[in-house]
Structures are given as C-alpha cells and as structure tokens.
Specification:
Layout: H1 9-15, H2 31-35, E1 41-45, H3 51-59, E2 64-68, H4 72-85, E3 90-93, E4 111-115, H5 133-142, E5 148-153, H6 156-168, E6 172-177, H7 192-199, E7 205-210
Parallel strand pairs: 1-2, 1-4, 2-3, 4-5
Antiparallel strand pairs: 5-7, 6-7
Length: 211
C-alpha cells in the first residue's frame, strides 16, 4: 500500500526522540538501560501504525517492547499513539530490519513478532521474506534458547513457506493455527491489517516457533 508523504515527519520524529530513537546501534547490549529496568524485551518487526505494539504494551506492562518500522510516514502514527498513551515500555526504531545484529546483542531479545509481513510472492524476492533463513540466523543470535517467534498473516502462501522454512532450519513448532479468530483467543491483540482483512472474510493464520 502506498503511503502518503508526510513532510512534517522528520521534524516530528526529532521532537519525539525519546520515543523513536536515533542511532539504535549505540544501545546494542544495553537496551535494559534504555528502559531503566530488567524486564524482558520483545521486538515487533514491521510495527506499522502501532495498534499491535501499543495494545501489547498496555496488556503486558512488565514487558518492554521495541517496534521497528522503516517507513517514516507510517511510524509517526505509532509515535503519536505511544505519546498519547504515555507508554514508558515502548521504544521505536525507524530502521531497516536487515541487520538486527548491529542493533541487538546475543540473547538480548526474548520474543519476536512478525505481523502481516510483506509476502514477497515472487521467487526472485525470496531472500526478502522475513522468514527466509538469513533472517532466521539473525533471530537465533539475538534470542536466547527457547526464545520465541510469533507469526501472524492472512497470506496462505507466506504462512506455508514460513512453516517449511522454520522446519528446514530445525525449529520447533509450538503452535500452528489455521484460523486464529475461530478460537476466540482473548489475549490476541489485533493489528490494523488483521482487522481489515478479517472484516473482508480472510482467514488469519498464526504460528509460534522456537529454536
């Protein structure tokens, strides 16, 4: 989806640099100091407009959340939500997720969320999928033993691809749900895309995996 350019985004993000942090790599290995506590840290890659990460932060106040979003025109919406809710357990990074190892130290993150990621359906774009083996290698490095990845999508092709990718990498499937909304999980925090696609009758898939 093409996002409308927001010419004020740069100035706004600089103004809110206590929420959306610049030079993320300087905090590598010291993210607990950023939050000023030793609570577990969860990361959402592709945080969109922030409905999921802010909802999770309110539901789990004893967990610290970091949202990564490359598009400035999108991340500003998340910053506004975090600011309005005064959520001290959320930080945002206007970064590309291609090099997580420059941002996070080994075993520093407890859980990773991949919500409605771009499926990159063409074969030549396989390496861009967030469940491709090169990304899994990075996740394995920053997650501890038994660290978990939670994937949600409405794209059957990406879901099936990811299950195969996880399996070939030797990961353990903790949950494979072919109709998330069918089980009425009250702990499930919906994303904007999740609400949109579900309202159109799309099935929502979810899986949880561990290394």
């Amino acid at each position: 989806m093409r996002q409308r350019h927001k010419p004020w985004a740069d100035d706004y993000l600089k103004e809110k640099n206590h929420i959306v942090l610049e030079n993320a790599s300087v905090h590598k290995g010291e993210w607990s100091k950023v939050f000023n506590n030793e609570n577990p840290i969860h990361v959402e890659i592709g945080s969109g407009k922030g409905q999921f990460i802010t909802g999770m932060a309110k539901q789990y106040p004893d967990v610290n959340f970091i949202g990564i979003e490359v598009a400035k025109s999108i991340i500003v919406s998340t910053v506004q939500k975090v600011d309005e809710e005064a959520l001290d357990n959320v930080r945002l990074l206007n970064e590309d997720a291609n090099n997580l190892l420059a941002i996070f130290a080994e075993n520093e993150i407890e859980q990773i969320y991949l919500n409605f990621s771009d499926p990159w359906p063409k074969n030549r774009h396989e390496k861009r999928r967030l469940t491709y083996k090169s990304f899994l290698e990075q996740y394995q490095n920053i997650l501890p033993d038994q660290g978990q990845i939670v994937l949600k999508t409405d794209n059957r092709g990406l879901f099936e691809y990811s299950l195969v990718s996880f399996s070939e990498y030797g990961m353990k499937l903790v949950e494979v749900n072919l109709d998330l909304h069918g089980i009425e999980d009250e702990t499930n925090v919906k994303t904007e895309y999740e609400e949109k696609f579900s309202s159109k009758g799309h099935v929502i898939y979810r899986c949880k995996v561990k290394f």
